[in-house]
Specification:
The chain contains 7 helices and 14 strands. The protein is an alpha/beta fold and 268 residues long. It has a single domain, classed as Glucose Oxidase, domain 1 (3-Layer(bba) Sandwich), CATH 3.50.30. The strands form 3 sheets. A 10-stranded mixed sheet has the order 1-2-14-12-6-8-10-11-5-13, covered by helices on one side. It has a two-stranded antiparallel sheet with strand order 3-4. Strands 7-9 form a two-stranded parallel sheet. A hairpin with a 6-residue loop joins strand 1 and strand 2. Helix 4 runs parallel beside helix 7. GO terms for molecular function: arylformamidase activity. Pfam families: Cyclase.
């Protein structure tokens, strides 16, 4: 549920999935390990040790993730992660594409410099399941190009992957299939040939990152509260030198009164 800050009247909306024990993990990745390095009963204090791949739950990808020599998390301009944006409702079923035509028809209108969150409805299926990871929709190449051409600064989607899952290593790409039954299941269910239908590995995601546009996967939380709205979005990652990705706390902010102003920075 949204929360209103009493001093300013700003409304905050959670757009992140929870993170921790039991977080759904990409097929092929090791599970998150959280261990108590010290704990209250023995030491009077709690400190935890974490081992994890950063590509789980709601996370942000820097260009370095897929572009050799691309910008890492720490070197990205910090203004990329805060600003005006749109939450686009583009409902899609299993194995469908979000296309340029879908983006063009969606409201509110996307403007240059926007943060764009694409909501297919798949966030409602978020779970440790073959359906969520293996049967979700994804961005088409023409959708990625449309976003690049509009000059957006950050793109998020409420699926496990920016691309169609059969265009990832879950299918027949880069040492796959990591989800072994998926290619045959897809062909049986659709009558389509996987190799012919998905000749390129993660094309839409690579296009966005090569254009210097960071991406967010697994958008979720209470995103339904801001569907079809223009709002202020914050998506700050860690200041992680040589980091390709990290889990983030993604939030939307609304100002119903239109009266909020931040502090000037002047000394009292």
């Amino acid at each position: 549920m949204s929360v209103t800050e009493p001093g300013t009247g700003l409304v905050f909306v959670e757009l992140s999935h929870p993170w921790g024990h039991g977080t759904p993990i990409n097929p092929g990745d090791p599970d998150i390990r959280i261990e108590r390095a010290v704990y209250h009963a023995a030491h009077g204090v709690l400190s935890q040790r974490i081992t994890a791949v950063m590509h789980n739950s709601t996370h942000l990808n820097a260009p370095l993730h897929m572009v050799q020599g691309g910008a890492d998390l720490a070197s990205l301009p910090i203004d990329l992660f805060f600003g005006n944006g749109v939450v686009l409702s583009i409902p899609k079923g299993r194995w469908e594409y979000v296309t340029a035509a879908d983006l063009d028809a969606a409201t509110p209108t996307v403007e240059a410099g926007d943060i764009v969150l694409v909501v297919t409805g798949w966030h409602r299926k978020y779970s440790d399941s073959q359906e969520y990871f293996g049967q979700g929709p994804g961005l088409s190449k023409d959708a990625a190009q449309w976003l690049i051409d509009r000059g957006v600064k950050l793109v998020g989607i409420d699926t496990a992957y920016v691309d169609h899952p059969l265009a990832t290593s879950l299918g027949l790409h880069r040492g796959g299939p990591l989800m072994k039954r998926l290619p045959k299941f897809y062909e049986t269910e659709t009558g389509r040939d996987v190799k012919a239908g998905f000749p390129e590995w993660i094309p839409a995601h690579r296009m966005l990152l090569k254009a210097g546009i960071p991406t967010i996967e697994n958008v979720g939380g209470d995103v339904a509260e801001v569907l079809g709205k223009r709002c202020t979005i914050q998506a700050y990652p860690w200041r992680f030198g040589a980091g390709d990705a990290c889990v983030i706390r993604l939030m939307a902010m609304l100002d119903p009164s239109g009266a909020y102003r931040i502090e000037s920075g002047r000394a009292a």
